[in-house]
Design goal:
Layout lengths: L1 H31 L6 E5 L10 E5 L8 H21 L11 E7 L6 E3 L4 E4 L13 H14 L8 H23 L9 E2 L14 E2 L8 E2 L3 E2 L19 H8 L1 H14 L7 H11 L6 H16 L4 H12 L5
Parallel strand pairs: 1-3, 3-5
Antiparallel strand pairs: 1-2, 4-5, 6-7, 8-9
Helix pairs in contact: 2-3, 3-4, 4-5, 4-6, 6-9, 7-8, 8-9
Bound molecules: asparagine (ASN), zinc ion and calcium ion.
The site of zinc ion has 4 residues, from α3 and α4.
EC number: 3.4.24.-
Function: Extracellular zinc metalloprotease.
Protein name: Neutral metalloproteinase
Length: 325
């Protein structure tokens, strides 16, 4: 587990170093092909040097014989269309930014990530993860990191980092629910169910309905996410400490969103999603859980009326995770 983690950290640091070189390429390509979230997919062929990756699919080009390529392409399109149709947002930067994806990154790489400019997907080792393009909510999670960077720019550590993670889970799950036309009480509220532990059934990487209960097995132990403030996990702001537990404490705001969505009922993207999206756009980069809770309460009042059922549901949801507005 720690070996896998170290390999993941190494490859992510390598990626960060390559960012400068890649940026030059991207700006030239961007000039040649401006547009409304036009998609480009590259194949890393198990390498971890992004500039060496082969261009394998473009917006107007034919499908690939490689389903990882096609899944990334379709997932980007679905997420782009969700942001456009539900929130009238034009791609990651709301200015039609190109959507660049890299598949088959590294050898048995157990992760996917947004590196500040593009989305990158590993193949997984087949035990912890399968090919990370396999879950649409994971693709939408990574693209949403770009949206967050271009809106609140939530700093990726401690509570603001856990909020950043939670935004990616919230909109990742909403994209899946939107594509399946599911109401809040019909959705599974799971993240990564299609890619997490291919050999183990009926689990997921995270659960927004029941943080701490997404998985429990001999290989990877029990899901460590808390679902309320009294269980908040204090970790150092280091790579080993997951930047202050950003992927752990995200369970708290995830649960608040889930409770808001099921409390209001209907399609979660229509009311709860609108409140969260408008709150993301006006939040600051150092927002705490308390700050964000206050903002959602205020936005619910502006959008649906002070004292409305929608606003009361937001208040009760945060109260259940032990945040008092
Ligand atoms: N899969 C992780 C995420 O998107 C990778 C990372 O950025 N830490 O949160
Ligand atoms: Zn993330
Ligand atoms: Ca599984």
């Amino acid at each position: 587990d720690s070996e896998v983690r170290q390999a993941a950290l190494d490859t992510m640091l390598t990626t960060a170093r390559l960012r400068g070189e890649r940026a030059v390429r991207a700006s030239f390509a961007g000039m040649a092909a401006p547009g409304n979230g036009r998609r480009t997919v590259f194949d890393c062929q198990q390498g971890s040097f992004l500039p060496s990756a082969a261009l394998v699919r473009t917006e107007d080009g034919p499908a690939s014989v490689d389903e990882s390529v096609n899944r990334a392409f379709e997932g980007f399109g679905l997420t782009r269309d969700f942001y456009q149709e539900v929130f009238q947002r034009n791609s990651i930067d709301d200015r039609g930014m190109r959507l660049d994806g890299y598949v088959h990154f590294g050898m048995k790489f157990n992760n996917a990530f947004w590196d500040g400019q593009q989305m990158v997907f590993g193949d997984g080792d087949g035990k912890m993860f399968g090919d990370l393009t396999g879950s649409r909510d994971v693709i939408a999670h990574e693209l949403t990191h770009g949206v967050t960077e271009h809106t609140a720019a939530l700093e990726y550590h401690n509570q603001s980092g856990a909020l950043n993670e939670s935004m990616s889970d919230v909109f990742g799950s909403l994209v899946k629910q939107w594509s399946l036309k599911q109401k809040a009480d019909e959705a599974d509220w799971l993240i990564g169910a299609d890619v997490w532990t291919p050999g183990i059934d009926a689990d997921a990487l995270r659960s927004m309905r029941a943080p701490g209960h997404a998985y429990d097995n001999d290989l990877f132990g029990k899901d460590p996410q808390p679902d309320r403030m009294s269980k908040f996990i204090h970790l150092p702001d280091t790579e080993e400490g997951d930047s202050g537990g950003v992927h752990l404490n995200s369970g708290i705001p995830n649960k608040a969103f889930y409770l808001t969505a099921v409390g209001i009922g209907g399609f979660a993207w229509e009311v709860a999603g609108r409140i969260w999206y408008e709150s993301l756009k006006v939040s600051g980069k150092e927002a705490t859980f308390q700050d964000f809770a206050d903002t959602t309460f205020q936005k619910a009042g502006e959008l649906f009326g002070a004292g409305s059922a929608e606003q009361s549901t937001v208040l009760a949801a945060w109260q259940e995770v032990e945040i008092q507005i």
